[in-house]
Every structure is written in structure tokens, then in C-alpha cells.
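Standup notes, structure subgroup. Blocker cleared on the zinc ion input:
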Amino acid sequence: METNLGYEDFPEIYEEGDHELECDECGKPFILNTSVSYSWETEKKDGDGNG
Ligand SMILES: [Zn+2]
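Run returned:
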């Protein structure tokens, strides 16, 4: 999936399950299915205090 959205914008999409979102290109709603099968923590960057 190609998106400009980040965890800080829509943390809910990083939760497992279905999420209704709006396409940032055509404005149409779509369902995003997230399957959490790996750890996001491995991608966490250091350097800011936003915890
Ligand atoms: Zn679209």
C-alpha cells in the first residue's frame, strides 16, 4: 500500500483489523486491512522524545 500517512497521523491503522479510510488521491473510501504479523518496534527511530 502506498500512503503518506504515518503512525502519528493515524495510529489506528497500525492496529490489527479493518479500518475505513479515505483515499488521498481520489477521495474514495476504502477498507484497509491490517495484519499485525511483525513488530513495529523494530522500525522505531531514536532521536525524539515523543515516546
Ligand atoms: Zn484512490
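Discussed briefly. Strands lie at 17-22, 29-34.
Next: hand off to the docking folks.
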